[in-house]
Amino acid sequence: MRTPAWGPQDIQAAWVGTTSSGTTGQSLSRPLKLQYIPITRVENACATAQDALRNACFAVAAGLYDIVLALGFEKLKDSGLSGLPGSQVGVIGAGSTAPGGFALAATRYFHQFGVGRETLAKIAVKNHHNGALNPKAHFQTEITVEQVLKAPMIADPLGLYDCCPTTDGAAAAILCRKEIAAKFNPDYVTIKGPGAGGGPGDGPHGPRVRLHPLSGNGARRAPGL
Amino acid sequence: MIATALDLRRDVYTADFTDTLRAGTIAMKAALDAVRSGSMQQALVVVADMRTAVPKSAEEQIFGDGAAAFLISASDVAATVLHHVALQDEITDVWRTESDLFPRQWETRFIVSEGYLRVSREAVQTLLERSRLQISDFSKVALYGPDPRSQTTLARALGVDVKTQLQDDLFNTVGNTGAAFAPMLLVGALEAAQPGQKLLLVAYGNGADAYALEVTEAIAQAQKNARRGLKGHLAIKHTVENYETYVRFRQLMPTEGARRPPLGASASATWRDRDAIFRLYGSQCTACGTIQYPPQRVCLRCQAKDRMAPVRLSDKPGTLFTFTRDYLNASIDPPSVMCVVDFEGGGRIYCEMTDRVPAEVHVNMPVEMTFRKISDAGGFHNYYWKCRPRR
Question: Residue A151: which domain range?
């Protein structure tokens, strides 16, 4: 019952997200041999695959397709670089890295709210705890606050455990109309509303320096919620 | 580039004087002549030199990098040039070919006795003869010298009292800064000068320049207005921790590259953004007054479109809003101290901090902007502004 007789030929459209490991929809159609279906390649930094999923939702919700595929993939380790790749052209804004950008917010947050690295360390400890419960997690071992504080500094005040590990990976979801979902999997999951929010559009030169509640804005703007 | 970074008008005449140790004093003569002839009211002379020596050579102990600047004006001057003599002299004593990384020089005794001593002495003697001045008329002598010993030898030969008349040679603090050396010595002399005193400036390099100057009453005001001068800069110096750091900064030794994407550069994008990059122009919204950098078309506060007026931020003092010491970013001097700076009067910039001790950087630190070479990405020099601890 859980694997009905259906396959790639039933997928009517796809959204594929990758920041630096492929371009165009062909990065998906070639390995899967998807035949002539429309595939949209999405790039939106760390929200890339989530945004692929979001746009796939819209297509199904709009009634344009019955079955679509949303997929995100990245092969970061092919770059041979430390941290996230990404080219930087010009002198304005030069010298920024992903951890460095978030560290600016952490420094100011610490200053403004009187907390320190110990508080931040609890997030990494909690994340690793959750990872230890998940057999598919990137890291599945518990860590202590002391380990977090003693780890090498990446972009002060963010140490190794405060930053995302970089690796290769992929995730996929098949989306269909709710009415036919049970046909493929009786234990299906529904998406109530996909949320996304952009920044205030002013960048690091602007007055807000990523202290704005990005995720909160996104959830509030989710259609259907 | 200097004129642009200073945000001078585009019709300000600029000229480059280069390829000689006398480039600075030759430029001063050109500026003096231009102002005297009435062709211009004021001229700014900037002289700078980097004297990178072969690692572990004797010259490395003596050479230094430095700069000096003078405003040559038709009136209200702190010092008047009474006389000038320039001698040209063809000799291969100290030189650098197009492909040389370091200055070269011939055997010491030859370059000192047949070059420096002979020609400098002749220039000064000619000046004294023509001006009917005595060497004892000068309160201070800003005397170029390839090394301390040769400088003292020349001073004695000229009858200069080494103890009282010779301007501090800077060999123990800055070193021989080439084209900028004698001009920097003159700045040192002017810092302590009294009205009515006479100063002698002597520069050497394939010939010699000798200037006789007289200090005016306006010197007191100039000394008061001086932002930092020689003394001020020496007082805020930061000592490089060790020789390895110096060699790394000067890129005289291959070092392991960071595993980071290389910096890119675009000549056309740099040209398009030249006012933002070189003049450090932001824009001020004429609808709501918000100052923003880089210059925007749409206001980040009120979203008004195309209602911006340019505003210069390079000379505005700033305060550190936040920062990070980034060990991941590729840098010749890790960690990169990346900053968000709030300008006095409004405006915010994201930039790197230089001339800093990373451990001493803190939120709300007072900073100022400074113009620097950023990289050689794209095969050309990329210049931009950095912040630094306020002086």
Answer: 98-165
B262, A92: Cβ pair inside 8 Å? no
- Asked if A63 and A119 sit in the same domain, the reply is no
Counted domains in chain A: 2
The answer to whether the CB atoms of B292 and A206 lie below 8 A apart is: yes
Domain identity same for A78 and A177: yes
Q: Please check whether residues A104 and A179 belong to one and the same domain.
A: no
Are A77 and A113 contained in the same domain?
no
- Contact assignment for A82 to B328 by CB distance below 8 Å: yes
* A134, part of any domain: yes
The answer to whether B325 contacts A204, with C-beta atoms less than 8 Å apart, is no
Q: How many Cβ atoms are within 10 Å of B93's Cβ, its own excluded?
A: 21
* A135 found inside a domain: yes
Rounded mean pLDDT, B109-118: 96
Same domain as A68, residue A12: yes
Interchain CB distance below 8 Å, A90 and B335:
no
Q: Would you call A144 an interface residue with chain B, using a CB distance cutoff of 8 Å? A: no
Residue A197 inside a domain? The answer is: no
Tokens 């003599």 identify what position? B85
**For residue A179, is it within any domain?**
yes
pLDDT tens across A22-62, in order? 999 999 999 999 999 999 999 999 899 999 999 999 999 99
Supply A90's token pair: 């010009």
Q: What's the mean pLDDT in A167-190?
A: 94
Q: Are strands B348-353 and B336-343 parallel, antiparallel or unpaired?
A: antiparallel
Q: Are residues A74 and A112 in the same domain?
A: no
Alpha helical stretches, state H, A48-205: 48-61, 98-113, 117-132, 145-150, 178-184
Dist CA A68 CA A53 (whole Å): 10
Residue A86 Cα, gap to closest chain B Cα (Å): 7
pLDDT digits (tens, 9 = 90+) for B142-159: 999 999 999 999 999 999
Residue A81, chain B, CB below 8 Å: the answer is yes
Q: Is a pLDDT exceeding 50 seen at residue B103?
A: yes
Mean pLDDT of B89-99: 95
Contact B260 A96 (CB under 8 A): no
Looking at residue A122, its pLDDT comes to 97
Going through B41-136 in order, the beta strands assigned E by DSSP cover 42-49, 66-73, 79-88, 94-95, 104-105
Distance CA B267, CA B274 (A): 10
Same-domain check for residues A29 and A73: yes
Binned at pLDDT 50, 70 and 90, residue B369 comes out as very high
Which residue out of B338, B341, B357 would a mutagenesis test of the A interface target, given it has the greatest number of A Cβ atoms within 10 Å? B338
Shortest Cα–Cα distance, A116 to chain B (Å): 14
Percent pLDDT > 70 in chain B is 100
CA distance B241 to chain A (A): 22
Residue A214 has a pLDDT of 47
A-chain residues near B337 (CB < 8 A)? none
The domain that contains A14 carries what CATH number? 3.40.47.10
Q: Are strands A67-75 and A13-17 parallel, antiparallel or unpaired?
A: parallel
- Residues of chain A positioned with their CB less than 8 A from the CB of B263: 88-89, 94
- A13 lies in the same domain as A117: no
Of A19-23, A45-49, A216-220, minimum mean pLDDT range: A216-220
Contact A88 B264 (CB under 8 A): yes
